[in-house]
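Plant basic secretory protein (BSP) family protein structure dump, as promised
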Amino acid sequence: MEDLPAKLSSRPKERPTSEFIHRNLRRHCDYSGNVKTEITGVLYHEMTHIWQWNGNGRASGGLIEGIADFVRLKAGYAPSHWVAPGQGNRWDQGYDITARFLDYCNSLKNGFVAELNMKMKNGYSNDFFAQLLGKTVDQLWSDYKAKFN
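structure tokens r here:
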């Protein structure tokens, strides 16, 4: 932990090959919730970036961040300010919105997110959703939105 003006990152631009997690301590000074729980959740999210695949740079940033927040969600560290299931404008909007959508997809096939991550080792295509779940990502997003709205 350092007193940095920037947000958290697992691979800072100045050291793109480092495996350090940098956290802005100032962010936690005014945090009104349980700081230990928040930091633990952040660590789950950032540690996910270390082992996850990014489709050789072809996957959207929203999906990458959504997978990391999905891991945080499944570990039980989703903060109370996250959106409720069914919210958001796009499935790959990122972070909690995409995490909730991935949780829905994972409920259709347990292990879906892990399988999606494995497929992203050598590239990325939205067709991975249809290959794994039998529906396009747009169909899944529509089903998800209908279920919760």
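The longest helix spans residues 35-51.
lmk if u need the other ones
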